[in-house]
Amino acid sequence: MPEYPWIDTLPGAVTVCNRDGFIIFMNQKSKDTFSNGDEGMIGQSIYDCHSPESVRIIQELLLSGRSNSYTISKNGVRKFIHQTPFFQNGEVAGLVEFSFVIPEDLPHHIRD
Protein backbone atom coordinates (compact mmCIF):
# COMPACT_ATOMS: atom_id res chain seq x y z
CA MET A 1 0.00 0.00 0.00
CA PRO A 2 1.54 3.34 -1.02
CA GLU A 3 2.02 6.08 1.55
CA TYR A 4 -0.49 8.14 -0.43
CA PRO A 5 -3.24 5.71 -1.52
CA TRP A 6 -4.81 8.28 -3.89
CA ILE A 7 -1.85 7.81 -6.24
CA ASP A 8 -3.26 4.40 -7.21
CA THR A 9 -6.53 6.05 -8.26
CA LEU A 10 -4.89 8.38 -10.79
CA PRO A 11 -5.95 7.67 -14.38
CA GLY A 12 -2.31 7.85 -15.50
CA ALA A 13 0.79 5.75 -14.97
CA VAL A 14 3.39 7.02 -12.49
CA THR A 15 6.74 5.22 -12.61
CA VAL A 16 9.75 6.23 -10.49
CA CYS A 17 13.38 5.17 -10.83
CA ASN A 18 16.39 6.02 -8.72
CA ARG A 19 19.45 7.78 -10.12
CA ASP A 20 20.92 4.41 -11.13
CA GLY A 21 17.86 3.65 -13.26
CA PHE A 22 16.27 1.02 -11.04
CA ILE A 23 12.48 1.18 -10.66
CA ILE A 24 11.55 2.01 -7.07
CA PHE A 25 7.82 2.74 -7.43
CA MET A 26 4.92 2.09 -9.79
CA ASN A 27 1.35 3.18 -9.13
CA GLN A 28 -1.39 0.70 -10.04
CA LYS A 29 -1.92 2.14 -13.55
CA SER A 30 1.82 1.79 -14.22
CA LYS A 31 1.75 -1.82 -12.97
CA ASP A 32 -1.29 -2.55 -15.14
CA THR A 33 0.32 -0.93 -18.20
CA PHE A 34 3.87 -2.23 -17.94
CA SER A 35 3.88 -5.19 -15.55
CA ASN A 36 0.61 -7.17 -15.91
CA GLY A 37 -0.73 -5.61 -12.71
CA ASP A 38 1.97 -6.95 -10.42
CA GLU A 39 5.14 -5.57 -8.84
CA GLY A 40 7.42 -7.58 -11.14
CA MET A 41 9.28 -4.58 -12.52
CA ILE A 42 10.07 -2.94 -9.17
CA GLY A 43 13.79 -3.39 -8.62
CA GLN A 44 14.44 -3.87 -12.36
CA SER A 45 16.48 -1.50 -14.51
CA ILE A 46 14.42 0.97 -16.50
CA TYR A 47 17.07 0.69 -19.20
CA ASP A 48 16.06 -2.92 -19.94
CA CYS A 49 12.72 -1.82 -21.37
CA HIS A 50 13.86 1.16 -23.46
CA SER A 51 15.59 1.61 -26.80
CA PRO A 52 19.22 2.77 -26.87
CA GLU A 53 18.06 6.28 -27.87
CA SER A 54 15.61 6.40 -24.93
CA VAL A 55 18.33 5.15 -22.57
CA ARG A 56 20.58 7.99 -23.75
CA ILE A 57 17.81 10.54 -23.07
CA ILE A 58 17.03 9.11 -19.62
CA GLN A 59 20.71 9.17 -18.66
CA GLU A 60 20.99 12.78 -19.85
CA LEU A 61 17.95 13.77 -17.77
CA LEU A 62 19.43 12.13 -14.69
CA LEU A 63 22.75 13.95 -15.22
CA SER A 64 21.33 17.35 -16.12
CA GLY A 65 18.27 17.52 -13.87
CA ARG A 66 16.14 18.65 -16.82
CA SER A 67 12.65 17.45 -17.77
CA ASN A 68 11.40 15.90 -21.01
CA SER A 69 7.84 16.01 -22.39
CA TYR A 70 6.31 14.58 -25.55
CA THR A 71 3.24 12.83 -26.94
CA ILE A 72 3.02 9.36 -28.45
CA SER A 73 0.45 7.26 -30.26
CA LYS A 74 0.49 3.55 -29.48
CA ASN A 75 -2.18 0.99 -30.36
CA GLY A 76 -4.51 3.81 -31.40
CA VAL A 77 -4.17 5.60 -28.05
CA ARG A 78 -2.58 9.03 -27.75
CA LYS A 79 -0.59 9.75 -24.58
CA PHE A 80 1.24 12.64 -22.98
CA ILE A 81 4.55 11.63 -21.37
CA HIS A 82 6.39 13.83 -18.87
CA GLN A 83 9.70 12.72 -17.37
CA THR A 84 11.08 14.88 -14.60
CA PRO A 85 13.78 14.48 -11.96
CA PHE A 86 13.19 14.52 -8.24
CA PHE A 87 15.81 15.83 -5.85
CA GLN A 88 17.19 14.98 -2.42
CA ASN A 89 19.61 17.33 -0.68
CA GLY A 90 19.80 19.43 -3.84
CA GLU A 91 20.95 16.55 -6.06
CA VAL A 92 19.06 14.49 -8.62
CA ALA A 93 17.87 11.37 -6.82
CA GLY A 94 15.89 9.82 -9.66
CA LEU A 95 13.29 10.32 -12.33
CA VAL A 96 9.48 10.29 -12.31
CA GLU A 97 7.57 9.46 -15.49
CA PHE A 98 3.92 10.44 -15.83
CA SER A 99 1.94 8.91 -18.69
CA PHE A 100 -1.65 10.06 -19.33
CA VAL A 101 -4.05 9.24 -22.15
CA ILE A 102 -5.09 12.41 -23.97
CA PRO A 103 -7.87 12.99 -26.49
CA GLU A 104 -7.02 13.20 -30.19
CA ASP A 105 -8.49 16.71 -30.31
CA LEU A 106 -6.86 18.06 -27.15
CA PRO A 107 -7.64 21.78 -26.93
CA HIS A 108 -4.85 24.28 -26.54
CA HIS A 109 -5.54 27.56 -24.72
CA ILE A 110 -3.36 30.64 -24.60
CA ARG A 111 -3.75 32.52 -21.34
CA ASP A 112 -1.97 35.79 -20.74
Given helix and strand content, the structural type is: alpha+beta
CATH topology: Beta-Lactamase
Helix content: 10-25%
Spatial order of the strands in the main sheet? Answer: 2-1-5-4-3
CATH-defined superfamily:
PAS domain
CATH architecture field: 2-Layer Sandwich
Give the terminus-to-terminus CA distance: 41 Å
Structural summary, described in words:
The chain is of the alpha+beta class. It has a single domain (12-101), classed as 2-Layer Sandwich (Beta-Lactamase). Helices cover 18% and strands 36% of the residues. The chain has 2 helices and 5 strands; from the N terminus they run E-E-H-H-E-E-E. The chain has helices spanning 28-34, 52-64, and strands at 13-18, 23-26, 68-74, 77-88, 91-101. A 5-stranded antiparallel β-sheet has the order 2-1-5-4-3. A hairpin with a 4-residue loop joins strand 1 (13-18) and strand 2 (23-26). The protein is globular and about 35 Å long. The termini are far apart.
Give a quick summary of the entry:
The chain has 112 residues and is α+β, with helices and mostly antiparallel strands. It contains two helices and five strands. It has one domain: PAS domain (Beta-Lactamase).
